[in-house]
């Protein structure tokens, strides 16, 4: 199958991320670091948050989408882009597509939070609601790419996308140069691949910790097994973090750069969403809160004086569902699922 795509690099480098920062900086927000002293005792460390829900489109995904699409040549942009996403990558690509006049088609799981598909449509993208199964959605993407000649913008298995996400690492080190540990959610692995490449390239002694939901944790299982592994995922409120199998590009970078991988249980994720809302006054989606959840549960070992930065990856979630969590009515639903 002849699927048009941009030529891939051999690997991701610190230099790629520096170039990405120059390319996308006019279009993004340099999100702040928030020192949250009232969380210190609960998380047993010196807590700073990187709130990417304050990014345009509500998540970190804008960074990677911008770097990828801005890197396309004129002919590639004319052919349009196609992708699949549970929502945040979709909204980011739709936003960039509208800004640059690039036709954008997104295949979204039909059970994804409604706000994500609605926001994607509102930004001008064509939205196709498809099966939750990733392989089914990916087959649809390949079909559309072949028929239309569109460029596939992969959510994480693409070095240009990873380089955009890595600009978060540059911002953290600029704003908190003495940070000791950075905690990052893992789904497909593109976010932590980018951040860890930036951080290890500039300050290699910094500890990088990735966190997955225990319900869907292929990278955690792979680290435990010592080889790339596929698992049977369970339903999770962290809908953006489904990960039943590793992907080759992120896997190699994660194995090289990420010091530890931890998991977060469903109840701890619920508690983390509440903690972030109560103490930081931020509405973070459950997928964004797995790092806080793992710290709450003691799944990441820290010192009380350790400077820890936790990346909150986004805030796009149905407000009615968020209200259910904040009203402490979600735990029974989690257990039933």
In short:
The protein has 337 residues and is an alpha/beta fold. The protein contains 15 helices and ten strands.
What can you tell me about this protein's structure?
By secondary structure, the chain is of the alpha/beta class. It has 2 domains: 14-56 and 159-336, Rossmann fold; 61-152, Rossmann fold (3-Layer(aba) Sandwich). It has helices at 14-24, 40-43, 61-70, 74-79, 88-100, 114-122, 134-148, 159-175, 190-202, 218-225, 248-257, 266-280, 290-296, 319-326, 331-336; strands spanning 34-35, 46-51, 81-84, 104-109, 126-130, 151-152, 181-185, 207-213, 260-264, 307-312. The longest helix is centred in the middle third of the chain and has 17 residues, at 159-175. The protein is globular. It starts with 13 loop residues before the first helix and ends with a helix.
Q: Any chance you could write out the topology, listing elements then pairs?
A:
Blueprint (H helix, E strand, L loop, with lengths): L13 H11 L9 E2 L4 H4 L2 E6 L9 H10 L3 H6 L1 E4 L3 H13 L3 E6 L4 H9 L3 E5 L3 H15 L2 E2 L6 H17 L5 E5 L4 H13 L4 E7 L4 H8 L22 H10 L2 E5 L1 H15 L9 H7 L10 E6 L6 H8 L4 H6 L1
Parallel strand pairs: 2-10, 3-4, 3-6, 4-5, 7-8, 7-10, 8-9
Antiparallel strand pairs: 1-2
Helix pairs in contact: 1-3, 1-8, 3-5, 3-8, 5-6, 8-9, 9-11, 12-13
């Amino acid at each position: 199958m002849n699927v048009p795509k941009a030529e891939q690099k051999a690997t991701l480098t610190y230099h790629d991320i520096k170039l990405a920062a120059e390319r996308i900086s006019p279009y993004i927000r340099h999100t702040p670091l928030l020192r949250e002293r009232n969380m210190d005792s609960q998380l047993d460390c010196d807590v700073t948050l990187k709130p990417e829900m304050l990014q345009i489109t509500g998540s970190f995904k804008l960074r990677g989408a911008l770097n990828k699409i801005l890197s396309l040549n004129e002919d590639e942009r004319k052919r349009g882009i196609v992708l699949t996403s549970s929502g945040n990558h979709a909204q980011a690509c739709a936003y960039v597509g509208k800004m640059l006049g690039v036709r954008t088609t997104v295949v979204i799981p039909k059970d994804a939070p409604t706000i994500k598909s609605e926001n994607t449509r509102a930004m001008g993208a064509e939205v196709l609601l498809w099966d939750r199964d990733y392989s089914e959605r990916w087959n649809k993407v390949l079909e559309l790419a072949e028929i239309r000649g569109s460029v596939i913008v992969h959510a994480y298995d693409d070095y240009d996308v990873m380089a955009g996400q890595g600009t978060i690492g540059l911002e953290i080190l600029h704003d908190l140069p003495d940070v000791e540990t950075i905690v990052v959610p893992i789904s497909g692995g593109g976010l932590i691949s980018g951040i860890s490449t930036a951080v290890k390239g500039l300050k290699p002694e910094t500890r990088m910790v990735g966190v997955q939901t225990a319900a869907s944790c292929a990278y955690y299982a792979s680290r435990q097994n010592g080889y790339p592994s596929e698992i049977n995922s369970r339903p999770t409120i962290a809908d953006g973090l489904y990960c039943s199998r590793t992907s080759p590009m992120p896997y190699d970078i994660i194995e090289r750069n990420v010091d530890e991988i931890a998991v977060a249980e469903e109840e701890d994720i619920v508690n983390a969403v509440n903690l972030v809302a109560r103490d930081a006054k931020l509405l973070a989606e459950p997928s964004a809160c797995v790092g806080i959840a793992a710290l709450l549960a003691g799944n990441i070992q820290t010192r009380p004086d350790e400077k820890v930065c936790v990346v909150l990856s986004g805030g796009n979630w149905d407000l009615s569902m968020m209200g259910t969590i904040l009203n402490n009515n979600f735990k029974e639903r989690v257990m039933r699922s």
